[in-house]
């Protein structure tokens, strides 16, 4: 093994290919593609992303500082709630500020410089995710202005609208979102100069038809010629299938009717979406489907949490202690969400370029204790 274990490995060439797809969609459709930091924020590849995309979207003071630093331009900013002490600092880095509610707009808009464009997040109660935890479009959602608000005049300084209700979605979900927007917020759409269609557009996945995205946006734009700019802000699409998590089998033992492979990585600490969504991640070495005719195991995470586990997985041959397993598609929404729970060894961050590996960061005791030490 040419890098430390465990490790998150980012394939730089795959990131480049994803960016070329997004750049082509940007040119064909006329939309401006922003990069949303919430799903991936590895400084080592930000220069690649900056070369191809039109800007960066941030949702906290730390993300705004990161985006302003690494993209060298003012950021598009939205957060579910604003801390008043952050406003003066954010003003120095934000070019477009989206408020989550009309009351928040009323509280802060007058404090913002005239040079900052102001938008409102709207919620048409349309969503593409089957998991409620990832569906901002669910009724009663705290995210965005609800449809009934569109019966009142648009606030004076609002020049644009922002909607984000998709999750790893295809073009048919975009078409549904656009129809919901027109049905719920048509009056406001005719008054603004820009529209941000948020993230969740999985344009780089094999199943996605980019041409269908282009046509849907063009048709919509033709109906609203007042819109000078349309944005999208994907995150997962930029690093889709561009990263993997490498782990090692530390033990194998039997308990009841299960055989366990105990790993040096954790589902709760290193792959939290697998338990939150939940979903079962693909393991490269395992068979595509469970088949009890083959050696079949449950995978145990490294923490003491009883539910830090996943399975079952079948393998073409018995798996021995010391062998390496690769978890597929572990770049987006992984190490931006990891924790140091239980003090377990945190995976290193590694870049893969061709046959070469560069270790970006190793984690140790100081990273663990430094989070809590005064």
Overview of this protein structure:
The structure is a single chain. This protein has 374 residues and is an alpha/beta fold. It folds into two domains: 12-239, Alanine racemase (TIM Barrel, Alpha-Beta Barrel), CATH 3.20.20.10; 243-330 and 338-370, Lyase, Ornithine Decarboxylase, Chain A, domain 1 (Beta Barrel). It contains ten helices and 16 strands. It has helices at 12-29, 46-52, 61-71, 87-91, 102-108, 171-189, 210-223, 267-270, 273-276, 365-370; strands at residues 7-11, 32-36, 55-58, 75-78, 94-99, 117-121, 158-162, 194-196, 229-232, 243-255, 258-263, 296-300, 309-314, 324-327, 348-353, 356-361. Strands 1, 10, 11, 12, 13, 14, 15 and 16 form an eight-stranded mixed beta sheet that branches. Strand 15 and strand 16 (356-361) form a beta hairpin. Helix 6 packs parallel to helix 7 (210-223). It starts with 6 loop residues before the first strand and ends with a helix. The model has no long low-confidence stretch (mean pLDDT 96).
Instruction: Quickly give the CATH architecture of the largest domain.
Output: Alpha-Beta Barrel
> What does the main sheet amount to?
8 strands, mixed
Question: Count of DSSP helices?
Answer: 10
Relative helix content: 25-40%
